[in-house]
Specification:
With 131 residues, the chain is mainly alpha-helical. It has seven helices and no strands. The protein folds into two domains: 75 residues, Orthogonal Bundle (434 Repressor (Amino-terminal Domain)); 41 residues.
């Protein structure tokens, strides 16, 4: 990738010491670090957990790393949901992180979610009445 350990840690927004602990197996990377690996380097997170598939994914896999570049739009929504489903079934840390995020999201966005549910219910009722 053409970066040293200090630059790599900085690109992941973690300290060099934390990166060393991850490499030594003393710490596990959090979901934020895994997300940065994907966004910045197109690392296939599934490969890190299972050893299956390619280490790099998407159209950026053969490109040279450019600091600040983010890889987005690699997976379509259906593919992303399928990948998430596989992670949730097999990888405890992903399941934990997603549930933690979802619980926080529900707590912080309760009013907005309730409005959307009400709006959807009303639209469904109108559609049913029209038939």
């Amino acid at each position: 990738m053409g970066v040293n350990q200090r630059q790599f840690a900085k690109s992941l927004e973690i300290s060099s010491g934390y990166l060393s602990e991850i490499e030594a197996g003393k710490k596990n990377p959090g979901i934020e670090v895994l997300n940065k690996l994907f966004e910045t380097y197109s690392v296939n997170i599934s490969f890190l957990f299972t050893g299956e598939g390619d280490l790099f994914i998407g159209p950026h896999k053969k490109e040279t790393y450019i600091p600040g570049q983010k890889n987005t739009g690699i997976l379509e929504e259906a593919d992303l949901l399928e990948e998430l489903s596989r992670y949730l079934k097999h990888i405890h840390i992903v399941r934990f992180a997603v549930l933690e995020f979802f619980q926080s999201y529900l707590f912080n966005k309760k009013g907005m979610i309730d409005k959307e549910i009400k709006k959807y219910s009303e639209q469904a009722k109108l559609k049913k009445d029209d038939n």
